[in-house]
Amino acid sequence: MMMPVPGEVKALVFILVIAALLASWLLRAEWLGRRGEGGLDFWKVVEDTVSHFLLLAMLVSAALQVIVRYLLSDTLTMPWTEEFGRLVMVWGALWGAAALQRSDDHIGMSVIFDQLPPRAQLAVRLFGDLVTLGVLLPVVWYGWKSAVSLDIMYTIALGLPLSVFAYPIPVAGGLIVLHTVSLIVRRVRGVPIRSSINTEM
Predict the structure, then answer these.
(1) Which residues are CB-neighbours of 70 under 8 A, at least 6 positions away?
(2) What's the CA angle centered on 27, arms 62 and 83, to 5 degrees?
(3) How far apart, in Å, do the first and last CA atoms of the chain sit?
(4) Which of 34, 175, 181, 197 reaches 20 to 30 Å from 48, CA-CA?
(5) Which residues contact 21 (CB under 8 A, 6 or more apart)?
(6) What's the CA gap between 198 and 195, in Å, rounded?
(7) What share of the chain is helix, strand, coil (3-state, %, to 5)?
(8) Which residues of the chain have pLDDT under 70?
(9) Cα separation, 183 vs 86, whole angstroms
(10) Amino acid 69: pLDDT
(11) pLDDT for position 98
C-alpha cells in the first residue's frame, strides 16, 4: 500500500533544490570561463546543479540521522533519513559516473598507453568506447525493465515507489551511452576532449 511522502521530506527537498541552485550560481565562474571555447556549456550547468543537490542531500540526511539519533531521540523521530540518504547516495554515485564519462575523466591505467603512437592511442580509445557501449546497452535495457517492474512496490519510510532505487541504473547508463557516442564522434573528428576536472592548484 502506498504511504504518503512525509511532509518534512518534501520541505527538505525544496530547501535542497534552492541551495543547489544557489551553489551552482555561486560556482558559475567555471562555466563562464568556457565561453571562449564555444559558449556556455548548458549540460555542464545541469550536471553541476544535480551534483550539488545530491551531495547536499547526502550531507544533510547523514547529519540529521546522527543529530536525531544521538541528541534528540527522546523528542523527535525521523525514520526516513536512512532511506533518503541511501537513495541520494545511489543516484549520486551513478550520476557522477555519467558526468565523468562526458569528459572522459574516468580512472585509467596509462603507462603503456602513453608509449603508443597517436594512431594506436586513438585505436585503443575507440576500442574501449565500443566495449563500453557493448556492456552498457544491455545493462540499460534490462535495468529499465527491472526498474519498471518495481513500480508496484513502495519504500517503507519515504512512501516512494521502490523503483526510485533502480532507475539510476538505466538513467545513468543511458547518459553514459550518449556521452560515449559523443566521445567516439569527437575522437574520430580529432576534436580535443577537455577534462572537466580542475587540476590547477
Answers:
(1) none
(2) 20
(3) 53
(4) 181
(5) 49
(6) 8
(7) 70, 0, 30
(8) 1-2, 29-40, 197-201
(9) 31
(10) 84
(11) 93
| Amino acid making up residue 140 | V
Which of these, 95, 109, 82, 78, lies nearest to 11 by C-alpha position? 78
Residue 69 grid coordinates: 539519533
3-state secondary structure 67-134: HHHHCCCCCCCCCHHHHHHHHHHHHHHHHHHHHHHHCCCCCCCCCCHHHCCHHHHHHHHHHHHHHHHH
60, 112 contact by CB (below 8 A): no
Beta bridge partners, 154, equal 161
Residue 36, classed as helix, strand or coil, is: helix
pTM: 0.84
Going 194 to 187 to 180 to 127, the CA torsion angle's sign is negative
Q: Which residues, other chains included, contact 55 with Cβ-Cβ below 8 Å and sequence gap of 6+?
A: 92
CA of 150: how far to CAs of 31, 32, 35, 90, 177, in Å? 38, 41, 43, 16, 23
Containing 135, the helix (H) or strand (E) segment is helix 118-149
Contact predicate 19/56, CB 8 Å:
yes
